[in-house]
Amino acid sequence: MKFKRILRENLEMGDLKRLVNTSLHIDEYKSKMGEDSDVCVLSFKVTGKEAGNDMVAFIEKGFDFVLDADVSSGEKEGGDYLIFVELQRTKKLPEQIITMMNDIMNLTDQELEDWTFKYYKNSDEHELTQEKLASEMALTPKDYDKKYKKDQEEIDQLKTSAGVDVTTTAPMNEFTDSLRVAAGLK
Question: Can you point out the beta strands (E) in 30-115?
Fold first, then answer.
């Protein structure tokens, strides 16, 4: 009787060295798991589809607070792929992000001090610390709605006043561009 051998590989310290970009983007993309006010979306770049798949598997298996993780379907400029991580929007969010990122540092041989983050549509880069995350982010659905629903309502009112149709279309960004390319629309 022959037995088939199954090869199981696990990520080890430093396996993703030089493959992960040190810029974290928060709430730049729409959630696929729920309302944006309830779900926070993190994104960052990795070089190579295999590295992206490994990172997603690591994140999904390693953190019970992660709702979902995914790698972009299409390649970005230079062979990069986006990793998307969705977390419930709670006051624990900054602590959860730092916990996850500290574990990711073991795979990348990077230091958390090397990382920056951008929040929502703001182009300012911030040092990735729990304190800075807490001060910049909307930590509850109520805070998110208070901060951003009003902005959208004002934009919709301006469009209506200008006689422009108010539509709900996907934003133009790297993720939606990759979807348009995959669908043959671009």
Answer: 39-47, 66-71, 80-88
pLDDT tens digits, 69-96: 999 999 988 889 999 999 999 999 999 9
**Does the pLDDT value for residue 168 go beyond 80?**
no
Model confidence band, residue 4 (pLDDT cutoffs 50, 70, 90): very low
Alpha-carbon distance of 178 to 76, in angstroms, equals: 8
Which residue type occupies 156? D
- Do 97 and 90 contact (CB within 8 A), yes or no? no
Inside any domain, residue 29: yes
Number of domains in the chain: 1
Range of the domain at 173: 23-182
Rounded CA gap, 70 and 85, in Å? 7
